[in-house]
Amino acid sequence: MFRRFATALAASAGLVALATGAASAQDSGQSVEVLHWWTAGSEAAALNVLKQNLEKEGVTWKDMPVAGGAGTEAMTVLRARVTSGNAPTAVQLLGFDVTDWAKQGVLANLDPVAEEEKWGEVIPEALQSFAKYDGHWIAAPVNIHSTNWIWINKAAFDKAGGKQPTNWDEFIALLDKMKEQGITPLAYGGQAWQDTTVFENVVLSTGGPDFYKKAILDLDSEALGSDTMKTVFERMTQLRGYVDDNFSGRDWNLATAKVIDGSAGLQIMGDWAKGEFRNADKKAGEDFVCFRFPGTQGDVTFNSDMFAMFDQKSNVEAQRKLASAIEDPSFQIAFNKVKGSVPARTDIPADEFDPCGQKGMKDVKEASANGTLMGSLAHGYAAPAGVKNAFFDVVTAEFNGQYDASEAVEQLVNAVEGAK
Ligand code: GAL
Q1: Is the CB of 379 under 6 A from ligand 1?
Q2: pLDDT averaged over the chain?
Q3: What's the 172 CA to ligand 1 centre distance in angstroms?
Q4: Would you say the CB of residue 305 lies under 6 angstroms from ligand 1?
Q5: What number is the average pLDDT over the span 304-330?
Q6: Which fold is adopted by the domain 3-145+303-359?
Q7: Atom 7 of ligand 1, nearest CA residue
């Protein structure tokens, strides 16, 4: 009898505790509505870490997911929301999109948190130039991703000889060996941002970092119209020969799933793909292998997910809590391990990360010291949206056989010129 009573008491005490917890979140009256495009399994799991941390601070999380890799669809929804006077509290943004919203004067100033927590001392310069506008912090960077990676099924790799390709010819030889195994050599999702993610890898590998800088960062018409760029498009066509028939429109995580289940050999994708391996309980070095896209070791094409806040007088406290939670060092470790990215802070130890994460951290550091840490085109860190979309159109049209390599080069020069 006493036992039953004690259990009931404990249970109701638990309920009371739960209810109090819920009430304190409500009592604070603080909530954030967060617009983002993290809908893949690993992405949602990573975001959940932030959501839970914030709820511990008494801030209620209102989720506003808009599916679509690289945020293309999310950006359309965001524009519609802002235009109708209903901006979300916070939004996931990339590079030039942060700057564009900042220019319109609609973003909240995060200086009070950034100064108190000394973000300036730990967030790399390359990120600060997007997270700050006019000398003020307007976004909180949550991670550093990079796009020049290959994710490969370990069994298929071993069967193909297990030698990491370091140049184009070796890469093609590896894809051929995977074809002989009867699997799809290249796991591929035919969406403009994915085509362009692959394209930027091929640009960097074919022309090297100086060419990448001229063509992609400086948008130099000579580089865009060069024979090197023609070779890049020829190589894109070559890659087309290694994808399956159903690639068109496929989401990136479904392509990753093919590498995970062994029906495809490898994927050229940013390190968010690693999140999907981890989410499927696969281990780096055992089930899958990561290396830099052949010919790009030493260089890093990066993108960083940032959260910007829309200026809302009633939500200032909750927004500051969100910004602070994002830069919290232990959160940076917990989140980035799940997401596949590396921390946005330079003072985070690497030991809790898997071998790919540790390599990612080391590579970013080295590339940054050597001047070869360069913005990703497909993920908004090389050029504003208009120019990026001009690349998307030509790259996708060429990959799908609408242009040959010479026509693509000509179209690219004109399209980029027109969009600048
Ligand atoms: C990138 C973003 C990543 C990941 C990926 C796929 O642009 O930075 O965090 O979400 O898109 O959607």
Answers
A1: yes
A2: 94
A3: 27
A4: yes
A5: 96
A6: D-Maltodextrin-Binding Protein; domain 2 (3.40.190)
A7: 70
Q: Whose CA is nearest to atom 8 of ligand 1?
A: 305
Burial (CB count within 10 angstroms: exposed 0-12, middle 13-18, buried 19+), residue 366:
middle
Q: Is 307 in the pocket of ligand 1 (CB under 6 A)?
A: no
Ligand 1 pocket test: which of 145, 151, 251, 302 has the largest number of ligand atoms within 8 Å of its C-beta? 145
pLDDT, tens digit, 9 for 90 and up, residues 90-136? 999 999 999 999 999 999 999 999 999 999 999 999 999 999 999 99
Ligand 1: nearest atom to the Cα of 339: 9
Kindly report the three-state secondary structure assignment for every residue of 307-337. Answer: EEEECCHHHHHHHHHHHHHHHCHHHHHHHHH
pLDDT at 29: 82
**pLDDT exceeds 60 at position 141:** yes
DSSP E strands, 154-225: 184-186
Instruction: Give CA–CA dist 233/10, Å, rounded.
Output: 68
Query: Of 25 and 220, which is predicted with more confidence?
Result: 220
User: Per-domain residue ranges for the chain?
Assistant: 3-145+303-359, 146-301+375-419
Q: What is the rounded distance in angstroms from the CA atom of residue 170 to the CA atom of residue 21?
A: 58
Q: Are 133 and 102 in contact (CB under 8 A)?
A: yes
What is the Å distance from ligand 1's center to 73 Cα?
12
Rounded to the nearest 10 degrees, how much is the dihedral formed by the CA atoms of 333, 338, 344, 345?
Answer: 10
**What is the CA(68)–ligand 1 centre distance, in A?**
9
Give the pLDDT score at 210.
98
Residue that wins the pLDDT comparison between 17 and 61: 61
- Domain 146-301+375-419 CATH (choose: 3.40.190.10, 1.10.3210.10, 1.10.238.10, 3.30.300.10): 3.40.190.10
- Using the atom order of ligand 1, give the atom closest to the CA of residue 378: 7
Whether 6 shows a pLDDT value over 50: the answer reads: no
Instruction: Tell me which of 272, 336, 338, 341 to substitute to probe ligand 1's pocket, judged by most ligand atoms within 8 Å of the beta carbon.
Output: 272
